[in-house]
Amino acid sequence: MEQPTPAAPAVAPPKSPDRPPLLEARDVSKYFGAVVALEHVSLTVRAGEVNCLLGDNGAGKSTLIKILSGVHEPDEGTLAVDGQPVRFGAPRDALNAGIATVYQDLSVMPLMSVSRNFFLGNEPTVGFGPFRRFDSATAATVAREQMHQIGIDVRDTEQLVGTLSGGERQTLAIARAEYFGARVLILDEPTSALGVKESAIVLRHAISARNRGLGVIFITHNVQHALPIGDSFTILTRGRSGGTFRRGELDAASLHRLMGGGEELEELQADLEILARREAAGLDPVAGLQFGSEGHH
Amino acid sequence: MATTQPAAGGESGPAPGSDRLRQISLTQRVLAKPAAGALIITVFVWIVFAILSLSAGSAVFLSVDGTFSYLDVAAQVGIVATAVALLMIGGEFDLSIGSLVGFAGIIIGIGVTELGLPLWLSIFLAVALTTGLGVINGIIVVRTGLPSFIVTLATLFIIRGLTVVMTALITNITFIPIDRAAVAADPIAGFFNWSAGPFKVSILWWIVIALIGAYILGRTRFGNWIAGVGGSASAARNLGVPVARVKISLFALTAFSAAILATVQSMTFFSSDVLRGRGLELDAITTAVIGGSLLTGGYGSVIGAAIGALALGMARIGIVFANINSDWYFIAIGTLLLVAVVLNNWIRRRFAGLR
């Protein structure tokens, strides 16, 4: 096993459009039998930028992520790192290219301590031969420092991860990915299971990673979380690209519409207005009312 | 701090979560260890049988001879308990371990009596072949992705059956006596049957294996992989842990310890028997569970399993010393197991802060 190679303290590279993007998917397609999981989708992430990948459930976000992180190979199209075409045959290849994915399950073990989780698969060792052992002192110090840097104070790194909150676990997974040399951080629905306060912490990590010069791909179906942090937005609907937009080009309503959920939301809005009017007129708001959404089916 | 702060976004004021951490006392830290429950249970078992023994008018349970006799019984299970606990922490079972003990013993017997090999060579052959069967167990589990409970239940029948068929074909009986003179003259047999008064070397094997196992689990990179693989094999794979290698090694280790136990038994009893090790799989799983290992993997203790073996040995011998019908042994063990699981569960929730 190779020794872990912690990332050098990141000096934010200057943002410039002439530098090749850190990671690019060019016109990729993926089919599972007769199912079109993804067709002609492109995505670009540059150093120091957050690209939000938006889409409803089943839009193909997960498939695209799995292609970018080496779990699947695309059936058509190519990937490029620093402008150079690459092939990822296994998750290891993507990791070695500096692409770290924080999956929804976070890959943390609830029954292992914080420091053991932090270094799982990349354990620091001391000693030689049969006496080569896990360097628990270094592991504890580094884990505490890295977690602190990203905003979580773990006093006792021997604490089991199962005792941490969802946001703290997310932080652990992100801090770990960064420490082991991530240049591109792929965050798969990091806020979907979190409360308001914890979501804010995670969103702040995404911005902080961008400020340190990393490229961030932020997957979500929550427009409210994507809008404040995204530099660009790529939209997926039913496995096809709904376009890529720069910050400021779109507002929340148009993002929703592009994701395919706009109509439903507008319908809901109309229903609510009817309810409000009836209530104002002193009528029983729901008696005998045919909702618009029911009329469509 | 001399470093300059990033311009924006990175710093988040007082760390969230810190106001939600309690100070933890030393007692709580000790009780948070997975082996805590096993220790409490074992002390309790000792007290119960000391009282039962004394009230039956005998102090032999408390004597040196009495103590060494239950230590020897505990060592029989204890020798395999470490590997079984490691395997369980790694998320797998080996139900074939008892049949592996029978197999290894028979290989030693056949090697010496039928093939005319020197005893030490037969022992090496038995250890190598048995470990090989463990590797096969591991490869089948890893390749098929089937639950190891089912795979090793199948190999339990196959290995036990194969051992009986092979022995019957070669020797016509299922029990092979080994020449005492050959054992006495052998350069390595003493490692397995040496004794001084009531002290038997098997006790040393049990303790040394437990210490090595605890070192591996708690202090090495491989130990971290074991817990990780048991916690979630797919997550561990995502992080670059060689999952298949870890699991196969653990099956090999379990089979290896079965071969050591078989050697101890055949050198002590001067014989091998196809039926040796029957029921060992359940004893070993019982000790691992009393020791705080989770059936679902990812959590447990080697020292706890070694202590669990002690509780089992005490109960088995204590019942005899207390002059109680030994049929009660299984009732005692069942109760012990149930109490231990409930206690370990409670400790885990209360002191390790887990739900």
State the main characteristics.
heterodimer; A: 297 residues; alpha/beta; six-stranded mixed β-sheet; 23% strand; disordered C terminus; B: 355 residues; mainly alpha; two-stranded antiparallel ribbon; 4 strands; 3% strand; globular
Uncertain segments of chain B of ≥5 residues (pLDDT<50)?
A: 1-19
| Mean pLDDT, all residues of chain A | 82
Quick one: biggest sheet of chain A? 6 strands, mixed
The computed structural class of chain A is alpha/beta
Give the tally of β-strands of chain B: 4
Q: What is the gyration radius of chain A calculated from CA atoms?
A: 22 Å
Strand order of the largest sheet of chain A: 6-9-10-3-11-12
Q: N-to-C terminal Cα separation of chain A, in Å?
A: 59 Å
Distance from first to last alpha carbon of chain B: 38 Å
Compute the gyration radius of chain B: what is it? 23 Å
User: Please, how many helices of chain A?
Assistant: 10
Task: Please state the average pLDDT score of chain B.
Answer: 89
Question: How do you describe this structure in short?
Answer:
The complex is a heterodimer of chains A (297) and B (355). With 297 residues, chain A is of the alpha/beta class.
